[in-house]
Amino acid sequence: MTDSSACILQDLYDSEINFTIITFWDAGFEIKLGDELNGFAATGRVNNFSEAVEWLRIRTLEQYPESGFAKAHRRSP
After folding, report:
1. 3-state class of 66 per DSSP?
2. pTM
3. How do residues 6-51 score in pLDDT, each as one tens digit?
């Protein structure tokens, strides 16, 4: 069985799409798509790790629709 969260994070990395997941106990997860040097395309906060990974997947599809990541992870309607 493959861990889909790990696959999504690895595919972001392989596609050269930067992201940050910051945790602090009892404060949820802060997520950023992008980096400090080039700026952040999106930022958000969620309650758990699964939501953080799904947030990254959705925002990457929105912000980088022509990326290799988007082509591999776009879901058909």
Report:
1. coil
2. 0.88
3. 999 999 999 999 999 999 888 999 999 999 999 999 999 999 999 9
Identify whether the C-beta of residue 20 lies closer than 8 Å to the C-beta of residue 31: yes
Q: In whole angstroms, what is the distance from residue 58 CA to residue 75 CA?
A: 10
Token pair for 56? 């990254």
Q: Please choose, from the candidates 52, 11, 12, 8, the residue with its C-alpha nearest in 3D space to the C-alpha of residue 28.
A: 52
CA distances from 54 to 37, 38, 45 (A): 24, 23, 12
Q: How high is the pLDDT of residue 77? A: 47
The gap between the terminal CA atoms of the chain, to the nearest Å, is 25
In this prediction, residue 30 carries a pLDDT of 97
Q: Check if the beta carbon of residue 16 is closer than 8 Å to that of residue 25.
A: no
Alpha-carbon 21 to chain mean position = 9
User: At 13, is the secondary structure helix, strand, or coil?
Assistant: helix
